[in-house]
Amino acid sequence: MSRYIENYKKNIAVDMRKRGLSYSEIETRIHVPKSTLFFWLKEIKLTKEQKKKLDDDRLKALKRGSEKKIKKTLQVIEELKISASSDIKEITKKELWLMGIILYWRERLLSGNESDLRKGVRFTSSDPYLIKLFLKWLQDIGGIKDEEIRFDIFITKDKERPKKSVSEIIAFWSDVTGFPENRFSKVYTLKTREKRKKGGREITNKTKVGLLRIRVSSSSMLARQIAGWVKGIIKYYWE
User: Fold this and answer.
1) How buried is 101 (Cβ within 10 angstroms: 0-12 exposed, 13-18 middle, 19+ buried)?
2) pLDDT tens sequence across 108-164
3) What residues are paired with 151 via a beta bridge?
4) Do both 107 and 224 map to the same domain?
5) pTM above the 0.90 mark?
6) Quick one: 77 and 103 in the same domain?
């Protein structure tokens, strides 16, 4: 650049630096490489307040960059989920049958306690969609009628979570399952953060709407049949 333009830009750069602007801000405004700015401005001393402002600006810039990166990552994840969801075209009855077996395997059969099967089919979850899926499996695959299905709700009183009344929780699970509210009369309260054994593992009930347990009356034979299907899967792959 010509000497006149160079001196003109240098004077502007010096003034900006004395006002506490960063090298990046100056570079953006007068379009001078940072290497040149370092040479021009190396003798300029900043006050404590100006240094603090630059440090704060750097932190803000890092935060903006991090938030932008997170936003972009979330967008990619959402696009991937939308694309993957389109892979599910149709679920056949056989596929539903297998899905239910695996779901029940994960939920009830991990303990390996065969005597537990005498109590019949039971399934517990706080996830509304898993509850919906297992109910569909019982009705479509197990041939279970609505009047054979019972529900138990387990809730905790936790000061760290917003309180929901029992009636609100019952209304929630009634809406999820499509069963009338009078079918949810059995509500059990657990101690705050109480750990209890379920399927051979420790769980802590932290959900705002509790856990819903599905029970099927007189279903010990179905429970044993599911256990047999699970053994069939194990035998097919590993025995």
Assistant:
1) buried
2) 766 555 567 788 899 999 999 999 999 999 999 999 999 999 999 998 876 555 567
3) 214
4) yes
5) no
6) no
